Queue: 2 jobs
Job 1
Amino acid sequence: MTGNGRAPRLAVFGAGVMGVGIATLAVARGVAVTLVDVDRARLDTARARLRHELRLAQMMGALSPGGAIGDLRLADAATAAADATWVIEAVTELAGLKADVHKEIAAVVAPGTLRVTNTSSIPVDELAGQVPSPEDLVGIHFMNPPYLIGTLEIVRGPRTGERAMSAVRDLLSTLDRRGIVVGDGPGFVTSRLLHRMINDAANLVEEGRASVEDVDALMEGCLGHPTGPLRTADLIGIDNLVDSLWVLHERTGDEGCRPGELLLRKVAEGEHGRKTGRGFYRYGAS
């Protein structure tokens, strides 16, 4: 229960892959969730997609059978988040769009409410400079799928306040997740390392040095990477990966982060990974 006697509620903005994944994690822990998206078509499928993710979580042992499932509300307006204990924004990796969403959130939630940006690459302070009450803004980099990966990055921006950090700890305790606090900056730690590696792996395939399968097999068998970089790209979403690489390239000048031709071609051809049924690998019915 919260300090005012009400059960806590999490508001998640964005009903895409990550938003639904975060909502799945929360309801699986018995937390009430309000899922907000202005795209009615995407919102209309969100409940079915969340049920599917819950079934996968249970099959993979991430959800105890018979456990309490949190209430799910769907909404197409920011005002639905007015009673939220915590708010997580999980919209597309575009700094301007994220800033606009956070302005809407700040206008409806109670003062001091934790506002989280789920971002893989955009510096938290870049957003903080454009939104009200920057002391309430924290970055969390949830990994996909959030209900399977128990460790995540917490990004404390220069303007993030101690009250917000305390609220993050409460949120992650409720979600049964381990957070590691890292410094702010493009890509933080995981994306700065992983996304450049995936880009290099795709470039090796494009050069004809090795096949997709062999690149992943070498990284798994020789270096202990659990899935291989290219299968990981399919899980992240190749379109999301390319967006993050552009953020890194623009903000660091590192040419190694400029998306390679193979990644760009896959995005243009709609081969975005698991969510579209085809990326570096094929998924679903053949």
Job 2
Amino acid sequence: MFHKPKIVIIGGGTGLPVILSGLRDKSVDITAIVTVADDGGSSGILRNYVNVVPPGDIRNVLVALSELPSIEKDLFQYRFKSADKFLAGHAIGNLIIAALQEMRGNIFDAVQELSELMRIHGHIFPVANEPLTLNAEFMDGSKLKGESEITAAHNQIKRVWVTGGKENQDPEAMHQVVDAIMNADQIVLGPGSLFTSILPNLMIKNVGEAVKKTKAEVVYICNIMTQKGETDHFTDADHVRVLNRHLGEKVIDTVLVNIQPVPKDYINFQEWNEISQPVTHDFAGLREQGCRVISANFLRLRDNGAFHDRDKVVNELINRLHDVHSD
């Protein structure tokens, strides 16, 4: 019987669903592990008023892996206009996820049920079964709580950690999350915000431990651009260094690095106001971190912004699976 390689992708934000949509039609068993520490936009409002796990990242992942017709996915993604004061800014999918979470009593069961309804190709696991709060300590010793507050501070981050709703009790991932990581052939981190999309997942103790113990190859898709308030002036080696330092050992086996230059006059920094400048390269620093480096043209320019080329990244991930299995 043919064994489909198991790929686990851990993250959040806008990069995660892009890669997932590219993997959906490949012959792989996909599991998406999604952050629940978001507190901005529609997700943040619902989190504050309804006391639910923020649904935005989960919504985008559901759509990326859904085999529903386009019209149904478009409806799920539809966001009410600002003139609709009562529902202004809310995506229909966020409201559905919040409602089902209330009906089922927890986000994990709600997402599994919604996965069946939306004909999901693969598995989607919220990284925790409760809303998490991201905490940060900055280089100057100050501390802040909340993802949006941390990013808005524009202060150099020293470390991050997550807390749950129960005092003096560390948050834990469901056993399905840990099992998926331990049984994977490949773990993919990113692309996404280093401190606010990727690390919040890894800072859950049993998730971080599983990533350290798994026999799977751990691949990090390094960001193309630095992010204001998070990774200003970071090299690719700095990104890997931060991940390894937070986990207490060198866990990144392979890093995908874009070496195609981003045209200076192409980026609209007013529209894409979260980004700062292209990530610079430090190949000696990457070698010091003990990881294999795959450097190639992974760049896709669109809408005056710099993004990963989905198909090139996905093809490289599939190539790595074949290379590892043939070793």
